[in-house]
Amino acid sequence: MGIDRKQVTAFIGPSGCGKSTFLRLFNRMNDLIENVKIEGELLLDGQNIYDPKADVISLRRRVGMVFQKPNPFPKTIFENVAYGLRITGQNNRKKLAESVEHSLQLAALWDEVKDKLHESAYALSGGQQQRLCIARALAVQPSVLLMDEPTSALDPVSTFKVEELIYSLKSNYTIVIVTHNMQQAARVSEKTAFFYMGSLIEYDDTRKIFTNPKLEQTQNYVTGRFG
Amino acid sequence: MISPIQIQKIAFFLIRLMAATVVLILLTLLIFLIYKGIGVISWEFLTAMPKAGMTAGGILPAIVGTLILTLLGISIAMPVGLGAAIYLAEFAKNDWKYKFILLMTNNLAGIPSIVFGLFGMALFVQGLGMGDSILAGACTLALVVLPVIIRTSEEALKAVPKELKLASIGLGATRMQTLFKVLLPVAAPRVLTGLILSMGRISGETAPILFTVAAYFLPRLPTSIFDQVMALPYHLYVISTSGTNIDESRPMAYGTALVLMALVCILNIIAFMARRYFTRKSPQK
Question: Does residue A1 belong to any structural domain of this protein?
């Protein structure tokens, strides 16, 4: 299964089908689970990220993740976005400030927070917090952005803003988004993968999946026969 | 037939009665102590050395001794306890080794203080050659509160929302970085509360210091950690039972008890307020 560069790929499927777990393979977050067994290879730019000699830390910087529930740190807005850089050892105030501003602009949040960078991130609304988390992920300059149901905890207005954000980001980042919301997948992605009960059922151009899928199971899911 | 609502009313009344009883007991204790002991409390009492076979003068050495033992005891217990808690919360798998350590920690928590005292005497005073000293006393007291610190710190770390850890790891942080930059700061208020409450516990312990450091009549302040020292709880015990002038010293005993109670109450209040301050500062979602 190949993920196209600088495009949006959506993973859809009913609850519990494994799409989030599959997504977490891409930045080796499943490694954190006790008693997990992973087989096979996953190639990023031709290199197997599951090679025993692979550097997981730098992998996670190249492949960023945004989670379903916004999870900013209990720190200031500035420190949240700067966190990724600080852990690489970057502590130069000027460089951090530049990066924080750039990332917040990419996340379409700069104007809303530029005057309160040193206030707690928890003072922001849910939608703003999620965009903050996106800014935080972008600050380490990943090439891939994984989004695990990023708008399912947000109101429609915030959802719209985040989807707009995804549009603006895809020219520079490869994005993989897991979504429960089929309309969102149809709106936002170029390619869609349909998962069911732990298996990949069909993977094709989004338009094909939603109008003329090859398999009946896919057809049944996207037309709402089950889910 | 009594209706369920009536039964509930009776039950609530009884529950409130129990709660009131608890408050009543505490108030009675406090008022009794204040009544009996306040007469003795004076600037001299708090800052002077004991005189005339404990019937006059002050209890400064005992106050100083208790404070030193408490601070040193907690300084020894904290790194060990916190380290163990970090291991248990972050690095241990949920296997038999983990369960074993947990079991041992709980057992340690249940050991009677006097047993710690005897053990402290054997290990620190005699075995390691510290002699009857502040150091031996502090080490023994550290053992007493170690399980409490381990438990509260471990729970504090486990209470950190898991998504914060995931966010940190997802950004490419190592586990140590995540621990120091995210987990510990978030767990700190609860850890701190546990520490302050442990300090209250240490200051009141009598048995562990019985054979390891406590002296009855030492009208001078300690000069090194190998000195013996007076301590409030021990002082209270001896002055009430086997001192040289039991009846004449009785008011001093109540005064000592009052000072000790005040110390513990102040520590508890600080813990309570610190907890409230931090909870308002960083709301847990």
Answer: no
With b meaning 16 or more CB within 10 Å and e meaning fewer, what string describes B239-276?
Answer: bbeebeeeeebbbbbbbbbbbbbebbeebeebbeebbe
**ipTM > 0.95 for the complex:** no
**What structural domains does chain B harbor?**
43-281 (1.10.3720.10)
Tell me: the pLDDT tens digits for A59-91? 999 999 999 999 999 999 999 999 999 999 999
Residue A33's φ and ψ, nearest 5 degrees, are -80, 135
In a domain, A39, yes or no: yes
**Residue A227 located in a structural domain:** no
Domain span at residue A214 reads 8-222
**CA-based nearest distance A79→chain B, Å:** 11
- Distance in Å, alpha carbon of A57 to nearest chain B alpha carbon: 5
Average pLDDT over chain B reads: 88
Q: Which of B90, B169, B171, B180 to mutate to probe the A interface, most A CBs <10 Å?
A: B171
Q: Hey, what are B28's tokens?
A: 């009675």
Nearest to B94 among A34, A59, A73 (CB): A34
pTM for this prediction: 0.83
Q: pLDDT digits over A87-126, tens only?
A: 999 999 999 999 999 999 999 999 999 999 999 999 999 9
Q: Are A188 and A167 in contact (CB under 8 A)?
A: yes
Residue B187 forms contact with A (CB below 8 Å): no
Domains identified in chain A, total number: 1
Residues in chain A within 8 Å Cβ distance of B180: none
Average pLDDT, chain A: 92
Residue with tokens 């049944």: A220
